[in-house]
From TrEMBL:
Residues 29-252 form the L-type lectin-like domain. This is L-type lectin-like domain-containing protein. It holds the Pfam family Lectin_leg-like. The chain crosses the membrane at residues 296-318. InterPro entries: ConA-like_dom_sf, Intracellular_Lectin-GPT, Lectin_leg. Its main location: membrane.
Amino acid sequence: MAAYVNSNMKLFLLFIYCVCSAEEFNAQDYLRREHTLTKPYQGSGMSVPLWDFVGNTLVTNSHIRLTSDHQSIRGAIWNNVPCYVRNWELHVNFKVHGSGKTLFGDGFAIWYINQRMKMGDVFGNADKFVGLGIFLDTYSNHNGPHNHQHPYVSAMVNNGSLTYDHDDDGTHTQLAGCEAQFRNKNYDTHIAIRYTQNELKVSLDIDNKNEWKECFTVKDVLLPVGYYFGVSAATGDLADNHDIISVKFYELDNDADKDSQPYTGLPAAKNMESPRDRVDENKGSYIAGNLTGWKLFIVIILIIIGLCVCGVVGFVVFQKRQENSRKRFY
Ligand SMILES: *[C@@H]1O[C@H](CO)[C@@H](O)[C@H](O)[C@H]1NC(C)=O
Ligand SMILES: [Ca+2]
């Protein structure tokens, strides 16, 4: 009897131990320091370990300001350790704020690309990039109505051949996107980018509820290992403060992948979203829609006329027969 209780007790303790150590493992061992940026940012000197800065980027005790609320400036931070983790999740705690009530911009981008520190016109980074870009676009450059509101979060995968089209807010090259009111909040705002088994999932925590809400998921996204993480921002005629508070990188690799070779080809994505309708295309389909409406109307009128003719003819024939039968009887 005693032995029985004892073994049960052992099992119970083992169970408790497993649960506790599993939790510890989740919390600690998955966070990879070499791709992470948290406070305090500075090491011994002015430099920040593992991360490099370009453009107007400014490091303070509480945040890393990629751009201040001034026109036509750019800034970026770049992790200087290439990423060889295949399945990962990146959490970025950010703050976009400024004095503009209705006019502000342009936004910022989170990158996983092959070349670091190249400044350019895509939210501060060079165009024709090779890799993944997640855009948090605060300003609609589109002339005329969009199918969506701004701020807008979207993803683009590029093998170096595509150009980001600002005039369309990148809608013709995006994989997917969602609207997100993340600007001028007096609480913490976060974005999570999860890449597992060739699936890209972007979630947001911007409602002060401390929970992730899915923005979009795209399957069949191929990203090679060995690229770099970075965050860049730009202002143009319109401006905003684009602040990064932290970047946390979690490894999600599992044993199932251990036997296969990691992907080393060019970035590729199958499910590029079909281009959104432009305004003139919309007008075209509107007229076309009306024409089919008219055609349908005419067809219905013809059917009604046809039925009336049949009815009248039938009635006349019926009358004639009645008369004929009367004539026979009388
Ligand atoms: C690069 O991407 C473009 C557009 O998605 C595609 O048409 C082209 O075939 C790709 N090139 C290579 C070498 O994969
Ligand atoms: Ca834009």
